[in-house]
Design goal:
The complex is a heterodimer.
Chain A lengths: L1 E4 L1 E4 L3 E7 L4 E2 H11 L23 E4 L2 E2 L4 H10 L6 E4 L5 H13 L6 E3 L3 H6 L5 E4 L4 E5 L1
Helix pairs in contact in A: 1-2, 2-3
Chain B lengths: L5 H4 L4 H10 L3 H10 L32 H9 L10 H10 L15 E7 L7 H12 L4 E4 L2 H4 L5 H17 L6 E2 L4 H6 L4 E10 L1 H9 L14 E9 L1 H17 L9 E5 L1 H6 L4 H8 L3 E3 L3 H5 L2 H4 L3 E3 L2 H6 L3 E2 L2 H9 L5
Parallel strand pairs in B: 1-2, 1-4, 2-3, 5-6, 5-8, 6-7, 8-9
Helix pairs in contact in B: 4-8, 6-8, 6-10, 11-13, 11-17
Classes of the chains: A alpha/beta, B alpha/beta.
Chain lengths: 147, 345
């Protein structure tokens, strides 16, 4: 087990399986198909992101450097939460980007969904965590990664 | 002029028509809401609201509350306005309130470049491939780009602005760039030069090999990679007036040189409503009609963004469209050859 400490954007605790995007997470490209098909697993449709393409995103610990792409990204994250298909938590290696911040805040304020969000976890976090590892988000920005 | 005749272009795909009927079922309600919020007119729908023909062109230093990633990066970089990449809903609130949060690209410090990009190619790189490479590398950071003015010159002419529009769209869709500076060319780079570069800025060198590496990295997700394209989209972001005229001339001449009457692949050129109005009655309109080119203000990204259209082999010269859909990317020269047959005889 290895512990990382970041900054709390949305407080909360959770335990979930890691899904790791080493490149920027394109929010619109990742969610658009699942929204149209009603896919409750929110299978990733971003063909440009081999780390997570065709993998389910609902209920995972989504580990990413930051979000990229369309300025609809914030609305997309909000909509995922509204549909109940959001990740269990979002864990940013970098300081959170403005679109990602808008999304997690809108989701927190306007929906019942819980999606703890931690940023500034550092590059080492993204190098260490692998798909399938168990991630525990604790109070105070603590993120534990089980091997 | 066959404006918005796109559904007919795919008339053999009935299920696609059904999906679009569903997708656009709420359109009237959306438009009614937008009108209440102050939408200028029914002709305001475009990703390129800053074109003179659309009439929403901010001045240097104006503070904006805009969404649409390609418009935000253009306004910041080419026009020198100030706008953050927030999110659709946040920007809507900003428009209603008349104020936006002051941070990031609204501040002098936030507009400093943390990347130096050195373009060392032997010719002008394709705008949307260069933008793609930079976007993927710097993500949301601000790049200061050297070497482009060697190809583009030092004046923001209409063709240079078109190049920067397409370049910026790719930086914002393949990354999260909200502002770039082009050495000796964009307004703040001309005014402030290298003082815009932050201490400890990182460096990214782009040569011909890097451009080719990026092109080769684009996945092709067609079920049959050798399928004959059923459709071609040109104009994501929307074409400017000079781009639209240029494409019509190039395609028309290519079709004639090939001894054909129409394009070999049904082709749609998408441009802002004001731009389409501006060529109404022109010889270009007649040329487009003669070879059955479809001119439309539709958003090709939204059109292609559903699972059924994903199964239709569509080609495009837009990296942005490629990023979000199953459309296959080709550079301008190749796509012209494919749709006209020019060079195949």
């Amino acid at each position: 087990m290895k512990e990382f400490k970041g900054r709390v954007v949305i407080p909360g605790q959770c335990s979930a399986t890691a899904l790791v995007s080493h490149g920027g997470f394109n929010t619109l490209a990742s969610y658009q198909t699942s929204f149209l098909t009603g896919d409750k697993k929110a299978t990733c449709s971003d063909q440009n992101n081999p780390d997570i393409y065709k993998k389910p995103m609902a209920g995972v610990a989504l580990c990413l450097p930051q979000t990229i792409g369309s300025t609809t990204g914030g609305m997309i994250l909000f909509t995922a939460a509204d549909y109940g298909r959001q990740p269990a938590c979002m864990l940013f290696a970098n300081p959170i980007d403005s679109i990602g911040a808008a999304g997690v805040l809108l989701a927190d304020i306007w929906t019942e969904a819980k999606m703890p969000t931690i940023d500034s976890l550092g590059e080492e976090f993204l190098s260490y965590v692998k798909n399938g590892m168990t991630v525990n988000v604790k109070d105070g920005g603590i993120v534990e990664v089980d091997d | 002029m066959p404006l918005c005749g796109i559904t007919e272009t795919l008339s053999d795909v009935e299920s696609v028509r059904a999906v679009h009927k569903f997708m656009y079922s709420e359109q009237k309600r959306y438009e009614k809401q937008l009108s209440k919020l102050g939408l200028k007119s029914k002709d305001s729908f475009s990703c390129a609201c800053y074109f003179d023909e659309q009439g929403n062109r901010p001045k240097k230093g104006d503070i904006l509350s805009w969404a649409e990633s390609s418009a935000v990066v253009y306004a910041n970089s080419v026009l020198g306005a100030r706008c953050n990449r927030n999110s659709g809903i946040i920007e809507l609130f900003g428009s209603i309130l008349g104020c936006v949060p002051k941070f990031g690209l609204l501040t002098d410090e936030g507009r400093k470049a943390t990347w130096k990009v050195e373009v060392k190619t032997t010719k002008l790189p394709p705008a949307q491939v260069l933008g793609s490479a930079i976007g993927m590398k710097v993500m949301e950071d601000v790049p200061y780009v050297y070497g482009l003015s060697d190809f583009l010159g030092k004046e923001l002419s209409p063709s240079v602005c078109d190049y920067l529009k397409n370049f910026g769209a790719a930086t914002a869709s393949n990354g999260a760039v909200g502002l770039y500076h082009i050495d000796e060319l964009t307004p703040e780079a001309v005014e402030l030069g290298e003082s815009l570069i932050a201490d400890n800025a990182r460096t990214y060198v782009i040569d011909d090999a890097e451009i080719q590496r990026v092109i080769d990295s684009y996945p092709i997700i067609w079920k049959n990679k050798d399928a004959k394209p059923k459709m071609c989209f040109i104009g994501c972001p929307h074409l400017s007036k000079s781009e639209l005229k240029g494409w019509i001339h190039d395609i028309y001449e290519g079709v004639k040189e090939s001894g054909k009457k129409t394009t070999m692949i049904p082709t749609v050129l998408t441009a802002a409503p004001g731009v389409l109005d501006a060529i109404r009655g022109s010889k270009e309109e007649s040329m487009a009609e003669e070879i059955h080119l479809t001119l439309s203000y539709i958003c090709p990204l939204i059109y292609c963004d559903n699972p059924l259209v994903h199964s239709v082999p569509i080609i495009t010269n837009s990296n942005k469209l490629r990023t979000y859909t199953s459309c296959r990317f080709y550079e301008d020269k190749k796509i012209l050859q494919m749709i006209t047959g020019k060079g195949r005889m």
